[in-house]
Amino acid sequence: MSPSRLDQPREIRRAVLPRPHYDPESFGRLSERIARFLGTARFLVYMTVFVAVWILWNLLVPAPLKFDPYPFIFLTLMLSLQASYAAPLILLAQNRQDDRDRVQYEQDRARGERNIADTEYLTREVAALRLALNEVATRDFLRSELQAMLKELEAGRQKDIR
């Protein structure tokens, strides 16, 4: 078998039977809904009632109506089948949740980094404003300077008057 060449189109292989197509996103949403239901008390109550009715039916009805006698092999098969489908659906739902959590974590981290950068910027701006305000003449400073100048002028007038 020769390695595939990138300058040539791929050979189209036709399958004997067409492969089924499904939308992974729709299937993922369905699996999450099923997994969410499997984790509820309602599901546990339904399963308990189902198993109890199954067992009581096969213990109490006349022999010709029984469809799964005492060792309840068919019930065991049904529960195993349900578990074999439930486990992968739950894992698929968990993987999708992990992906969402990872994206959320990355967004939270980026938001946190932006908040830190904004806080540092605002801290620098406040420090610059404080420094600038130290160079600005305050009202009390101006008042004291004007009073000193008035005293000097009055002293100079009194000197001129004498």
Automatic annotation (TrEMBL):
UniProt superkingdom: Bacteria
Keywords: Membrane, Transmembrane, Transmembrane helix
UniProt keyword annotation of RNA-binding present: no
Membrane-crossing residue ranges in chain numbering: 43-60, 72-92
Pfam families, A to Z: DUF1003
Keyword Transmembrane helix: yes
UniProt cross-references to InterPro entries, sorted A to Z: DUF1003
Protein name: DUF1003 domain-containing protein
Organism: Actinomadura fulvescens
